Amino acid sequence: MEREEKDGDFLSAILVIFGGTGDLTHRKLIPALYNLVIDQLLPKNFAIVSVGRRNKSEEDYKIDMYQSLKEHSRNKVDDKHWAKLAGMLHYYQFDFTDQGGYSGLKDYLDELDLKVKTGGNRVFYLAVAPEYFETIVIGLHTSNMTKKPGAWSRLIIEKPFGKDLKTARKLNNKLLEVFEESSIYRIDHYLGKEMIQNIMVLRFGNSIFQSIWNNKFIDNVQISLTEKLGVGARGGYYENSGAMRDMVQSHIIQILSLVAMEPPVNLKTDSIRTEKQKVLEAIEDITPGFLRNNVVFGQYGKGIIDGSPVPGYREEPKVPADSNTETFVALKLFINNFRWAGTPFYIRTGKRMGTGSAEIVIQFKDLPNILYFKDKEVQEPNLLVLRIQPNVGVFFQFNTKDFTSHNGIIPTKMDTSYYSPTQGNTPEAYERLLYDILRGDGTLFPRWDEVEAAWAFADKIIKYRENKISQFPNYDAGSMGPVSAFELLARDGRKWWNI
Exposed site from 160, 326, 342, 490, fewest CB < 10 Å? Predict the structure, then answer.
């Protein structure tokens, strides 16, 4: 990552992290900020204020963060860069559910602003449970922390953004009472991953791909986000989420829109967001009749992962013994526009799967069975695979002559991937997202109409799921999901690719 702005163009600010003692701050945010220090991507006049309920001194807090860095930073912690980050880092003890305490926080930030010379600019990061979003925003508003002449304020919120369309709209209306839409940054850490950002470059920076990126040449598109991990200690959260809310409504829908969008008129934030939104509007109407044949839900039972036995979902902590929460979803859908009409998009996500990976597979149409494939040769399709994790890169499969035989044909693989052992919400993703927020670049953050359309889509599937009687568990941990998920593609004469 290289610095893109001149010092004079790089805006100063105070980053206020609500939930400063929480897991997200320890594992993701502080490591991301440390690596931005190393890469010289933070503004000269910059401060970090971690707000937490715990009674601890600022020095104790810095010791805690130093230990977190040693465990989670992608770069080795050295004294020089740690000293620079530590000089920016402050701890403010405050129970953010106490509305009377926000005036004290405002005074603290105002004093720090004069000292650091940040011009009154604020970034408020809500690294807390969703039920506290509204409480904190009200506190910021009533204490006049969000409006200052000549300065800007930005709000960052983590998913889940609501639990359905109704609650998402209610929350958004509350946020808009205090912040403008352009100042709200809804974090989806998947959009910070390098290969997700590379989708547009591959599509619109290479004529060979852009010219064939349509239903005339592409047979089907597969998006698979699979995990070996179970829910672990997150059973309480997952019971109210499930795979639909946790993965499909957010990460997968965002990836889908990037893969299927039309070329934007320019690379400005709203131009890109508008084209993504058009994809969501073009998704075929999700009716109960359509879902009966095109969606599969699953829940993992006991099994073996990497040679070790693991419990079933219903045996995980804080999960009821009769839970019907889905840990797996497979779905076929269509995008009804001129570019994609008739091309199926297959989606798959699940926990406790046999492999843990995230990838997009573009399968191109077969050639007519003449010439080389007329008699006995089996035609392997051309595949373009965008590997998001852990093997980050691009994979392309094409057919060529088998030089060990007289006339055989074999698939040849061109692979630019490299292995990255980091999984999940990688600090690298947060580095890019925090950097963009400071610059005021909202390209990698869903606009409200995208979130609204994603919930409208997901709600129909969730409602169908709630009315459906399922025989759970229906796949073993360590497998690749329920049998019916394989039948979903087999009926179309296709198969899931695990590249």
Answer: 342
